[in-house]
Design goal:
The chain has two domains: 2-80, no CATH class; 85-128, no CATH class. It has helices at residues 25-35, 37-42, 75-80, and strands at residues 2-8, 18-22, 50-54, 70-71. The radius of gyration is 17 Å and the shape is elongated. The protein is an alpha+beta fold. It has a four-stranded antiparallel β-sheet. It is built from three helices and four strands. Helix content is 18%, strand content 15%.
């Protein structure tokens, strides 16, 4: 399966609002339309307004335990795809967002996420 993102053909704010793994763009479009309320709202209920685009750089994020198409709901995967939550801080090193989760918290002092490692000089993390 391959990664696809979807949104409206005339985006107001976000170019894409959902992502999935499917076998083809045709399958991805039909599957996401059927299973994503976010897309219905974004496209004002008009299937012809739905746009699906391949994201080959995210193919390696496929959950190999799944054999059927699925919408990506896992924040870790969406984060690795470069997605973020509005107004959220991004790591100064890797550029990935915290996704509003403690697991990926970006330090306000040193600007680093746990995966990159907090700065040794950071007062907030000196004793951790």
């Amino acid at each position: 399966m391959k990664c696809y993102v979807a949104g409206t053909s005339c985006p107001q704010e976000y170019p894409y609002v959902d992502a999935c793994f499917a076998n083809s763009s045709k399958e991805a479009k039909a599957f996401m339309w059927k299973n994503s309320h976010t897309l219905h709202d974004e496209c004002d209920g008009d299937y012809m307004d739905l746009r699906v685009k391949r994201q080959p750089q995210a193919d390696h994020l496929l959950d190999s335990s799944k054999e059927a198409p699925y919408i990506i709901r896992d924040y870790k995967t969406l984060r690795q795809m470069g997605w973020s939550i509005d107004g959220e801080r991004q790591c100064d090193s890797c550029g990935l967002a915290a996704m509003d989760m403690d697991e990926f918290y970006v330090c306000d002092s040193c600007g680093q996420c746990p995966e990159c490692g907090y700065d040794e000089e950071c007062e907030e993390h000196k004793n951790s």
